[in-house]
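Protein 1 of 2
SEQ + STRUCT:
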Amino acid sequence: MRYRFITADVFTDRIFGGNPLAVLPDARGLESGQMQSIAREFNLSETVFVLPPDDRANDRKLRIFTPAQEVPFAGHPTVGSALVLAAIGALELVGETTRIVFEEPAGPVPVTIRAAGGKASFAQLTAPVAPEVRLAPAPDAVAAMLSLTPADLRTADGLPEFASCGFPLLIVELVDAAALGRARLDLALWQRLLADAWTREVYLVSRESSDPEADFQVRMFAPAAGIAEDPATGGAAAAFGGWLGLRATPAEGTTRHLIAQGLEMGRPSRLEVEIEKRAGRVAAVRVGGSAVLVSEGTLEVPAG
């Protein structure tokens, strides 16, 4: 069986930045094991398999695989798939703003695609579930796991803390960008500390950034998913946005933040996060960005 694929760099406006993504725009006929093998072959943070929706009210069904596992929701595959499908004509653009819905295991994910000159230029997802937070291990233990000292952690507002908007992670705020750059995951301590935790993904945040326009600079470690470090993580940005909405964002209106990621990896990424609050509650968390198409080809997949 032959399957078309497209790769794109997501959360960037230039090639070789952002987070690479592989998209199979028509994955009908593939079984789960084949999808996992293909994702392992690409060895990118995620590979997306696009299918017809189960509910005809939606536009497409997405199955998203890291090299190690299928995930229920992820941001860079959602944003990237919308822009790839629009670019190849698989999604019809309606004027300057097109709204679609992707089916993902975590739930329906609304996506808004913005176009300029008839070409898709930006996509923004709305997180599929409301934000949730849970208690995390003690700061001293988390600092040791990151090869840092307790003084490198900023523990205001209750951090470290687990958070999710469909993609759970451990959020750790560091005191500055220097500490962010020094962080190294001690895999032995990581395995012991988070073995039975809600999640083993670790998201580091600094309010300092070498990107002068960014509000935060972040790093993301996900070795359990086969990703030593991720250059741009939309699901994590949504979780962080949800945490901000619950812990640190004003009670009313929409707050916007620019997150820089991937700088330490040489793949600069920009993720735009919106937190909408009504009556003191988080009404929506949105994550958006751009993408650049990189390559196109055909996979030969053995039957069964």
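Protein 2 of 2
SEQ + STRUCT:
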Amino acid sequence: MGGLNTMSMVPEQQRLTPAERANLVAYLDEELSGPEAEALATKLTHSATARRESESLQKTWELLDHLPMPRASEAWTEKTLTEARQLSGRGVRFETLVAQTSRRLLRNLVWVALSLAACLLAFALTRWVWPSPGEQLLRDLPIAEHLDEYRDVGTFEFLNELTNTPEFGSGKVD
């Protein structure tokens, strides 16, 4: 039965998962915080196997401290620092370029939005405020259809006389 789940094992024999192993150095340096640190501390407390893995890593780090530290040559140090300065200068230029492009894009978007708002305002004014000649003609259509008849009438006196006749009116005009 080689496919045993670590959860089904006795808690003292649980090994560290790859994710826990990746976080172990940060945990030992007290740089890991939050639920991951709590889970790792609990596992190290309850599992002898996990504790052995942790102790082995601690001893390895301690032994590394006893090894002689190689010194880099002055030429290599200078070359590395020069390249780092160039890269940081490029990064600043890139950030400046991004900031300038962002400002330019934002300015252009504002202009487009203002232009669109002006167009919509102009459309609204011409659509609902400005008088439409077609609508005026439509309102005046009954008058235009009978214009010749109105011209034949001549004055209002004739219309008043018609209103006072028994055939067209009540016989009395106010």
